[in-house]
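Model it.
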Amino acid sequence: MIPQITQKNVHLFIPYKVSKICDYICQKENISAQEAVVKFYKTKTARLLAEEKSKLWHFGWVSLYEMYKEEQNGK
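Modeled.
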């Protein structure tokens, strides 16, 4: 039986995805892990990932990284 994803449990999907995204940001931008985490969490992508209704938790970390990059390039 697959559990229903709600706002109360969506947080279970986030740490792994954010850690993979931030590791990749560190590599690509040559910045520290702390800087990558702060930089990612300041984005709309990160805010939406934390909202169950956005369904971004469904996406893989690579897709989420691409969304992050598009957001960064749009600034």
